Amino acid sequence: MATVLAVFVALSGSRLRHWLTPPQLTITLANAEGFPATLYIFNRETNEAQHQTNGIWYHVRVDNKIRSTTATGVHIFLILIEAPDASGEFKPIWEGYAKLGCRHEPNLEPKDIGYHAECDLCHVLKDPREVRFSPLIKGQVPDTFIGPFKIGVTLQARDIEAESDLLRLEISWDGEWSDDRAEMKRHFVVKAAGARGGA
After folding, report:
1. For a disulfide at 135, which of 39, 53, 70, 98, Cβ 3.0-4.6 Å?
2. Within 10 Å of residue 49's Cβ, how many Cβ atoms?
3. Can you give the three-state secondary structure of the chain, one letter per residue?
4. Residues 6+ apart with CB under 8 A from 9
5. Can you say whether the dihedral through the CA atoms of 31, 34, 37, 39 is positive or negative?
6. CA geometry: angle at 110 spanning 108 and 113, to 5°?
7. pTM score
């Protein structure tokens, strides 16, 4: 009987743990200052590098607060993009569920998270001077913006067992670039903002 019980616990322990203490996902902006890096721009016809340009990458971080229970099959979704109308009020310009790629790992497969992981949100480039978002499936969302602009984006982390609260970020850019990081922080701003109706 003890052997049967031990086998049962071994086989169902993971399921029991997920039922008793399910994963608890939270989602935040990883770093409001971003991370500088270099991007190689390729010629689409020849697939050869044309030039390299400076850029700043911004990431979203998902945490699993219940570290003893692994969150399985995690994706971070971009679910809403808003832009201000003539009166300055934010209105949706896109809604859906677009998966974002994990940082340094643009893989279509979901990720298992014991502690935390980060995904690519967007990056601003010096040349060409534009902002690019990072959906796993290109063309699924408006993914390239030219400044100046101000938009709101809403994101959510989801796995098989749980989902996070919504995270709404506002991204503002005056269209300018500076190699000085302190100056660039005044040109390009990413900040957390309160959720709006419908988000």
Report:
1. 98
2. 10
3. CHHHHHHHHHHHHHHHHHHHCCCCEEEEECCCCCEEEEEEEECCCCCCEEEEEEEEEEEEEEEECCCCCCEEEEEEEEEEEEEECCCCCEEEEEEEEEEECECCECCCCCEEECCEEEEEEEEEECCCCCEEECECCCCCCCCEECCCEEEEEEEEEECCCCECCCEEEEEEECCCCCCCHHHHHHHEEEEEECCCCCC
4. 16
5. positive
6. 145
7. 0.79
Q: CA 186, 191, 64, 160 torsion: positive or negative?
A: negative
When pLDDT is cut at 50, 70 and 90, the band that residue 16 belongs to is: very low
150's tokens: 């101000």
Q: How confident is the model at residue 175 (pLDDT cuts 50, 70, 90)?
A: very high
b/e burial code for range 28-48 (CB count within 10 A of at least 16 → b)? bbbeeebeeeebeeeeeeeee
Give the whole-angstrom CA distance, residue 123 versus residue 182: 17
CA 182 to chain centre: 24
CA atoms within 13 A on the CB side of 101: 16
Place of tokens 């497969």: 109
Best CA proximity match to 77, nearest among 166, 144, 189: 166
